[in-house]
Specification:
The chain is an alpha+beta fold. The chain is 31% helix and 19% strand. It contains 13 helices and 13 strands. It has helices spanning 16-23, 67-73, 141-172, 200-203, 238-245, 250-267, 270-277, 283-286, 291-296, 321-355, 378-394, 411-415, 477-481; strands spanning 3-6, 10-12, 36-46, 52-61, 78-87, 92-99, 106-116, 124-134, 299-304, 310-314, 362-367, 399-405, 427-430. Strands 1, 2, 3, 4, 5, 6, 7 and 8 form an eight-stranded antiparallel β-sheet that branches. A five-stranded mixed β-sheet has the order 9-10-11-12-13, with helices on one face. Helix 1 packs across helix 3. The longest helix has 35 residues, at 321-355. It is elongated, with a radius of gyration of 30 Å.
Amino acid sequence: MVQEYLSPVRVYKHPFELIMAAYVRRFPKCPLIPVFVDSEVMSETQSPDGAVVVTERRCMVDVEAPRLLKRMAGVDYLYFIQKNTLNRHERTLRIEVHNETFSSRVIVQELCNYTVHPENEEWTCFEQTASLDIKSFFGFENASEKIAMKQYASSIKKGKEIIEYYLRELEQEGVTHVPRWTPSPAPKSASATAAPALTAPLLASRPISIPGPKDGAPSSGSGPPELPPSSPDDKLDADYIRRYLGDLTPLQESCLIRLRQGLQETHKGKSLTWRKQHQVDFLLDSWERPALLADYYTGGWHHHDRDGRPLYILRLGQMDTKGLVRALGEEGLLRQVLSINEEGLRRCEENTRVFGRPISCWTCLVDLEGLNMRHLWRPGVKALLRIIEVVEANYPETLGRLLILRAPRVFPVLWTLPLHRREHPQEFLVYAGNDYQSPGGLLDYIDKTILPDFLSGSCMCDLPEGGVVPKSLYRTAEQLENEENRLWADAIYKSASIHW
């Protein structure tokens, strides 16, 4: 069985050239990786203008394996061929690795890329993918696979630490900036095509005695596995994973990346395209909230629940939904809802830092006091359904808990409508009447000190009082009919099943 690894994007907040200066210090050997015994440069070529340097190394690795297995295999060390293609003009480094030892029995392939961060040219991104295919290994295929994956996971974990170690070493030596490569004004002579002074001494290595391959020549298979093509927005940052999911093992990260990749392929990346097309990432900073909402939209953020999740309170019974739709139009109301979700994501990030644990969803408390049949105005319900579809498609799994208080008799009618999210919050809690403060009620989820005053608490909650929107603020029927709801377009996911 082929074992595959796919890394998240690891971001170094340093320029590409400085990262390269740190990277080459790993050779010919790295004391921080005891299994990496030694290496030698087999060849080094350079393009006529000096922009592209291709270096091939032969690396000696001491794998921690049972002595019996080493004796049966007849080797003490494993040998790998590493080909590095450094493009100084495009500021990229491509690293291709394959095994030389046991190449007829085992196929190990790895591909790593260092590139400039797409949004900040002073940062550097690192991505890595690898595969292991043990065809036969003296009857110890399963044991060898476990040993290999354990060793590889260990080396992955140390990778970023090593770069940061050499960055600190460079800083101690006074090297905090490396100028970018620029083409020479005149062609160089043949004797002057050596690598620049920055890399030449670092790439030089002493000769080592490495025996020939024990079992066959290097594999000439299909080449190293390619990194999956995708836009920068499609990729998961390692720091993002740590912030929201905690510390995962490298193999757990790989499973998460592959799962996300499969889902994106199924959904064709519609949500990310939608966000980029409509500049949703800048909504909080660019959208001017109409004054009408400050007076009549009876919802707002209010502290957090007992789990540290941001708490959003909506006094739906006090809201004139018909008036808001008639005065704002569907797109205006949709932008309000999207801004709430964007603010929720931002508050989740803040609470993650404050509480020191991953928080990725929020709690919504809906007060239904005052709800009646006027809230069932058909055009308003239709608009609300469309808004919910957009939110479901582009903010999945962000509503962790829904608390519904003071549900009136008309509530069962509302509940038959698909107004709640189809992916369902983790918990639905509905309280009728005024017994929501009894044991097993609201106070199990929200601290009494932040219970809003309109729910018989002592905490002042700065929410609009709501009321009926004056008809003088209504838009004309012609204006509403001609409204172009651009945010609806191509925003809805199609249902799909993923099999792993």
